[in-house]
Amino acid sequence: MGWVFLGKFGIMWVLIVLILVSGHSDGCLEGERRGLLEFKDFLKSNGADADHLHPTWVDEKADHHSDCCDWERVTCDRTTGHITELSLDNIEDTSYQHYRMWFINASLFLPFKELRSLNLSFNLFSARTDNKDMQIS
């Protein structure tokens, strides 16, 4: 009777471990990583020193550390790998530069399916209103 109980108990532990391991993500999702790199390209194309502000946001071809869940200003759900928070506040210090309004295309944030918090404070962003390709549900 003791061996049968131990066998059933052992099988239960194996099942629990398999469920936990299969539900754990190995890092951020590729589409969301590419979305962050596109946002970085947007910053660069508008004259921001994006490499200085986001030195950890690198393409995997340039650096093997490409898990965007470990990047600065990014928070992920470690189980699903989805980005849940982006802290993009104070991207460009405007205290000593001329004030420049940046027009940001809101569709840049479409890849982030589970984004719950987006901090864009202390930036001079304005949203475009001509996002014809963007569908909001």
- The percentage of residues in β strands lies in 5-15%
CATH topology: Leucine-rich repeat, LRR (right-handed beta-alpha superhelix)
Derived structural class:
alpha/beta
Oligomer: single chain
Mean pLDDT: 74
The CATH class = Alpha Beta
Shape: elongated
As residue ranges, the low-confidence spans are 17-24
Largest sheet: 3 strands, mixed
* Span between termini: 58 Å
Question: How many DSSP E strands?
Answer: 5
Polypeptide structure, described:
The protein is an alpha/beta fold and 137 residues long. Helices cover 31% and strands 12% of the residues. A hairpin with a 6-residue loop joins strand 1 and strand 2 (83-87). The chain has a single domain (26-127), classed as Leucine-rich repeat, LRR (right-handed beta-alpha superhelix) (Alpha-Beta Horseshoe).
Outline of the structure:
The chain is α/β, with parallel strands linked by helices and 137 residues long. 31% of the residues lie in helices and 12% in strands. A 3-stranded mixed beta sheet has the order 1-2-4, with no helix packed on it. The protein has a two-stranded parallel sheet with strand order 3-5.
Please supply descriptive tags for the structure shown above.
single chain; Leucine-rich repeat, LRR (right-handed beta-alpha superhelix); alpha/beta; two-stranded parallel ribbon; 5 strands; 137 residues; 3 helices; elongated
